[in-house]
Design a protein that fits this description.
Blueprint lengths: L11 E3 L2 E3 L6 E5 L7 H14 L3 E6 L2 H12 L5 E5 L6 H4 L5 E4 L1 H6 L6 H15 L2 E7 L5 H6 L4 H18 L5 E6 L3 H14 L6 E3 L8 H15 L5 E3 L11 H15 L14 E4 L10 H12 L9 E5 L5 H4 L5 E5 L3 E6 L2 E7 L3 H17 L3 H10 L5
Parallel strand pairs: 3-4, 3-10, 4-5, 5-6, 6-7, 7-8, 9-10, 11-12, 12-13
Antiparallel strand pairs: 1-2, 13-14, 14-15
Helix pairs in contact: 1-2, 7-8, 8-9, 9-10
Length: 396
């Protein structure tokens, strides 16, 4: 066992769980069932608790979801967090039934644009205070407040950092200190850098660590370990979330992975993967959650990994996103992106939309775009691509 000096943050109470200030690192996860499917959601919560989840997050995007949450709360003693995305006003409906509310500054900006962001945050903080809820300021690489993107157009990490610090200042000015911060990216090295910078500027604020859209195992686990090992070994991080693309019946495995990483770090067992471990084709995919609009999304992510294996040696990123909330924005940074709707998949080249295709049509179109990108960027002739596809057993 190695000696790790945890950063001396303040304590934040999330239901019966205390984080920060030297308390054990809490492991979180998120349900992937539809929140309105109460029986399935409760069954998944039970499996997650059995796996060792300290906090379980549920997405609430509608009044129907909020009504289902009330029923769920009556049938579980789990420490529950709620994820607010496009409608922050639902906080007032769900706060009586949860222990923590997460809001995204980027999405907050887009709702009720006529209101100042400080007014919106003050309202959320008032609701949280009235119901004894903690808050999480959740900043994601693909959904930073546009104001900070404009200020730092060529420096996305500083945009994330300053956005988080700004929201901390708002809550501090309101006298509300029961909050944590997360700064997430799909690149583990960027996660390390931005969290180090935040911890230096605000060592008092507990940090929720995560690599967003880490993707499918095993590479998704490798990416997560790279970030968590570096930060936890430096005493940075008070609660963690492993985000893997998994089918519903395996979502509890995120908890097992998180617990294993914490144990390994404290036992001195490190992956220590070099940066070159992530060279080549990078498949980024979001964790399957209750916002996924078609469960074929997980199968599609697996098919993309298998069928695009012939391009494994090219430094290209393909993003596969499962919902309308994060899909459009978080595919922008990828070379090629798929964001999946109920019946169709949107294919993008960076921020440019190429077209919309059915789930049965999308893979050949993606392969065509990938081949075109390889030829343009790397000058690879069609013959060499054909040989690579054949050796990888990929049908044309």
């Amino acid at each position: 066992m190695i000696s790790i000096q945890r950063k001396p943050t303040r304590t934040v109470r999330i239901g019966r769980v205390l984080i920060g200030n030297g308390y054990p690192i809490a492991v979180q996860t998120m349900t992937a069932t539809r929140t309105t499917d109460i029986d399935a959601t409760l069954a998944q919560i039970e499996r997650m608790q059995a796996a060792g989840a300290d906090i379980i997050r549920i997405a609430v995007d509608s009044v129907r979801d909020a009504e289902a949450l009330q029923v769920i709360r009556r049938h579980t003693d789990a420490v529950l967090a709620v994820d607010l995305q496009e409608n922050y006003r639902l906080a007032a409906v769900v706060a009586p039934y949860v222990d923590k509310v997460r809001y995204n500054p980027g999405h907050l900006y887009h709702h009720e644009k006529h209101k100042d962001v400080r007014e919106k945050v003050a309202w959320i903080a008032s609701v949280a205070r009235d119901h004894g809820c903690a808050l999480r300021i959740g900043v994601n690489c693909g959904s930073v407040d546009p104001e900070f993107q404009r200020r730092y157009p060529n420096d996305p990490l500083t945009a994330m950092l300053e956005c988080a610090l700004f929201h901390c200042d708002i809550l501090d000015s309101l006298g509300f200190n029961q909050y944590v911060v997360s700064l997430k990216d799909s690149d583990p090295y960027r996660v390390i850098e931005v969290n180090r910078r935040f911890a230096e500027k605000r060592p008092d604020v507990p940090l929720h660590l995560g690599v967003t859209e880490a993707g499918l195992p095993p590479m998704g686990i490798v990416k997560t370990r790279i970030a968590f090992e570096a930060l936890l070994a430096e005493g940075i991080g008070d609660t963690i979330r492993v985000s893997l693309t998994l089918p519903n019946d395996r979502k509890h495995e995120e908890v097992l992975v998180g617990r294993q990483i914490i144990e390994d770090v404290y036992q001195g067992r490190f992956l220590n993967a070099p940066r070159t471990a992530l060279r080549g084709l990078n498949i980024v995919s979001c964790p399957s959650c209750s916002r996924v609009e078609n469960e074929r999304f997980v199968e599609l992510a697996e098919q993309v990994r298998a069928l695009m294996a012939y391009a494994k040696d090219y430094d290209i990123t393909i993003a596969v996103m499962g919902c309308r909330v994060n899909g459009p924005g978080e595919t922008d940074a990828a070379d090629l992106g798929l964001w999946c709707g109920p019946t169709h998949v949107n294919l993008k080249r960076g921020p440019e939309k190429i077209g919309t295709y059915t789930y049965d049509e999308i893979l050949p179109r993606l392969r065509d775009e990938l081949d075109r990108l390889i030829r343009q960027r790397f000058g690879s002739p069609e013959a060499s691509l054909a040989d690579a596809r054949e050796s990888a057993d990929v049908a044309p």
